[in-house]
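Hi all, long-time lurker, first post. I run a small reading group and we've been trying to get comfortable going from sequence to structure in the token notation. Rather than ask abstract questions, I figured I'd post a concrete chain and ask someone more experienced to write out its structure so we can walk through it together at our next meeting. Sequence below, copied exactly:
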Amino acid sequence: MLFIEKFIKKLSQDTREVIILRIYEEMKFKDIAKIMGCSVSTTKSRFRLGINQLKKLMENDYEK
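-- Answer (accepted) --
Happy to help. Here is the structure in token form:
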């Protein structure tokens, strides 16, 4: 398992899906929004939220 995968699994389903599609699949926000049935701004918000949550999870893990 990749280091980041254990943290991605802790995200909500919607946030996790946006992160995976954007980073691993290298999709554009417009295409992700179409797939998920939401607006581009919602998709971007979920991505930012997910990245911030991942940072916090990794920082907390590092401090242990």
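A couple of things your group might point at:
The helical segments are 5-8, 13-24, 29-36, 40-63.
The chain is about 75% helix and 0% strand.
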